[in-house]
Design brief:
Elements: E1 3-7, E2 11-12, E3 18-25, E4 34-41, E5 48-54, E6 59-61, E7 69-74, E8 79-84, E9 93-101, E10 107-110, E11 114-118
Parallel strand pairs: 2-11
Antiparallel strand pairs: 1-3, 3-8, 4-5, 4-9, 5-6, 7-8, 9-10, 9-11
């Protein structure tokens, strides 16, 4: 059983950087051929894929967020992280981490999600 857990601040000020970490247990983030993704859901809206880091460390990002998004990993801790810069209130959402199959898509395991509010 793979488990994922998001962690990080629930409140971020406009223009600052949003930083979240996903801790994975029950499976290694370096196992072929899985990807480790960040997805968000603003209030009243659908799910939005943000980006992914693959088992080999390669990354891919949503075109609409690419300029502000960075995903990294720490294999010694079996964790991967999200950084979203220059945030505005439009970035307020529930943020999820999830596991996918590289270059295929679809998610078999999800974290519970964490609420992040951008407000002064």
């Amino acid at each position: 059983q793979v488990q994922l857990q998001e962690s990080g601040p629930g409140l971020v000020k406009p223009s600052q950087t949003l930083s979240l970490t996903c801790t994975v247990s029950g499976g290694s983030i370096t196992t072929s051929f899985y990807g480790w993704a960040w997805i968000r859901q603003p209030p009243g809206k659908g799910l939005e894929w943000m980006g992914v880091i693959a088992y080999d460390g390669s990354t891919s990002y949503s075109p609409s967020l690419k300029s502000r998004t960075s995903i990294s990993r720490d294999t010694s801790k079996n964790q991967f992280s999200l950084q979203l810069s220059s945030v505005t209130p439009e970035d307020t959402a529930v943020y999820y981490c999830a596991r996918s199959l590289t270059d295929v898509g679809g998610y078999d395991y999800w974290g519970q999600g964490t609420q992040v509010t951008v407000s002064s």
